[in-house]
Amino acid sequence: MAIKTSELNAKLFGKANKRRATTPQEARTAVKEQAQVIELDVAGEQTVSFELFRIPADQIEQRTLVFSQNAREQSFLNEHALSDVLVTLKVRGQQYPAVGRKTEDGKIEVLDGSRRRMSCIIAQQDFLIYVADDINTNHAKFLSDVANAHKPLSLYEKGKEMQAKLDSGEAEDQKALAKIFQCSEALVSGALKAASLPLPLLQAYPNVGDLGRPTIVKLHKQFNELTKSNQEKLLDKCQSEKGAVWQRSSTQGVARLTKEVSESIESWILELSPNKADASSKIDFIKGRASYNRSGANLSLNLKKIDDEMMQDILSFIKQKLS
Question: For 207-232, how does the pLDDT look when each residue is reduced to its tens digit (9 = 90+)?
Answer without folding.
Answer: 999 999 999 999 999 999 999 999 99
